[in-house]
Specification:
The chain is of the alpha/beta class and 312 residues long. It is built from 9 helices and 17 strands. The strands form 4 sheets. Strands 1-2-14-3-4-10 form a 6-stranded mixed beta sheet, sandwiched between helices. A hairpin with a 2-residue loop joins strand 12 and strand 13 (235-239). The longest helix has 18 residues, at 41-58.
């Protein structure tokens, strides 16, 4: 759940997915967001918060604001053009920055990433459904993505467990069809490698708005409650809003949890290991399919990546 405590807007970075629950929540965010007047601070915060929710929905995240959080967040946008810091250049952070710029019309939005590059090779493949249509609205070019039309699930022994024909599902559930279609009316579902997705999202942000190699050490709310000071290895900077999108071990998110009296994430003892490799030849006709295999304590996922062949 995304947490908001002014001047923080926190959302845990997550694998960008398309869970149906997230898709249904995203429906309410589909209409164009209102453009706030420069003099209306409260309207600016509402539009900014909705933009963050839209970006989170596009990443398969669900978000919510407590009443106390909304009240404190309203204090963070009294300036006509607040200075915003997005901590983390993963899918959640980049989508949030795009939404704040395009939908809330905020110009001073900077993404700060501790890694010296956009982490190529980190993460594997990503399935996008309603997230693809939302990213299209944010101007992200997904023409390189592999269209996805069918999902097939089997047991490790090869027994069929489930088959989903996505175009048929979209047609049969009109309430969801709008959120999983591109602007041309075609199904938006697709597969893409995570690093390619990050590059496509980063390309839509202005030059200089992503600062790599910037490690956050601490975030503190200023004494007047109107801004926050971020302390980096390179020095300190002040922002009106700070968006925490730097993962489950987020330093910025930790400040929000402490203010709300919530417990920090704890290790559950479960571990998932991923690896990506070529799968060799596949039968004709499966180019637009995702294949899943489930066994006892293990499983596999395979799909075609445009220009790279089939990957598992």
């Amino acid at each position: 759940m995304a947490s908001v405590a002014a001047p923080f807007l926190g959302s845990p970075a997550s694998a960008i997915g398309a869970q149906e629950k997230a898709s249904s929540q995203a429906l309410a965010l589909r209409p164009p967001l209102p453009v706030p007047e420069a003099s209306a601070g409260s309207s600016l915060v509402r539009a900014s918060s909705r933009a963050v929710l839209a970006a989170a929905a596009s990443c398969g995240l669900l978000s919510g604001l407590r009443r106390s959080q909304r009240c404190r967040a309203a204090q963070a946008a009294r300036a006509a053009s607040p200075r915003v810091a997005v901590i983390g250049a993963g899918p959640a952070g980049l989508a949030t920055a795009l939404a704040l710029r395009r939908e809330a019309k905020l110009e001073d939005v900077t993404v700060l990433e501790r890694s010296p590059e956009l982490r190529p090779g980190v993460g594997g493949g990503v399935q996008l459904h309603s997230g693809a249509s939302l990213l299209e609205e944010l101007g992200v070019d997904l023409s390189f993505a592999q269209p996805l039309r069918r999902i097939r699930s089997r047991s490790a022994s090869g027994e069929d467990l489930l088959q989903l024909d996505l175009p048929s599902l979209i047609e049969n559930f009109e309430a969801f069809s709008g959120s999983v279609r591109r602007s041309d009316g075609q199904p938006a579902s697709c597969t893409v490698m995570r690093d390619a997705l990050l590059e496509a999202m980063a390309a839509e942000l202005p030059s200089g708005s992503i600062r790599l190699g910037t490690k956050l050490l601490e975030v503190q709310t200023n004494s007047d409650g109107q801004a926050a000071t971020c302390r980096f290895e390179s020095g300190e900077e002040e922002f009106d809003l700070v968006v925490a999108a730097d993962g489950i071990g987020s330093r910025a998110r930790r400040c929000v949890l402490e203010e709300e009296g919530e417990e920090a994430p704890r290790y559950t003892g479960l571990r998932i290991q991923y690896g990506v490799r070529e799968a060799g030849g596949r039968p004709a006709g499966c180019e637009e399919e995702v294949h899943q295999w489930f066994g006892q304590g293990h499983g596999g996922l395979g799909f075609r990546v445009q220009g790279l062949g089939f990957r598992v």
